[in-house]
């Protein structure tokens, strides 16, 4: 089976959230998938961060597939 963008997008990667509070009181969230180095998204809410993360995942996976870079998979 060829592992394509759809295959990777449907895998269940553990996600981490970090609430960030700036000096001026502004808050936002940093959302990452530790298994996928460099994949980071931000949002004013967790939900917004997750939407941004989905877009970032598409770009991240597409880039790896195009360059033939091995993509780590989550442990099931």
TrEMBL record:
Taxonomy, superkingdom: Bacteria
Residues covered by the HicB-like antitoxin of toxin-antitoxin system domain: 20-74
InterPro entries, per the entry: HicB-like (IPR031807), TTHA1013/TTHA0281-like (IPR035069)
Annotated SUPFAM superfamilies: TTHA1013/TTHA0281-like
Residue ranges of coiled coil: none
Pfam family, one: HicB_lk_antitox
The protein's name: HicB-like antitoxin of toxin-antitoxin system domain-containing protein
């Amino acid at each position: 089976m060829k592992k394509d963008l759809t295959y990777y997008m449907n895998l269940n990667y553990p996600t981490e959230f970090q609430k960030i509070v700036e000096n001026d009181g502004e808050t936002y969230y940093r959302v990452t998938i530790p298994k996928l180095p460099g994949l980071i998204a931000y949002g004013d809410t967790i939900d917004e961060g997750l939407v941004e993360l989905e877009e970032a995942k598409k770009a991240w996976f597409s880039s790896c597939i195009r360059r033939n870079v091995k993509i780590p998979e989550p442990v099931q």
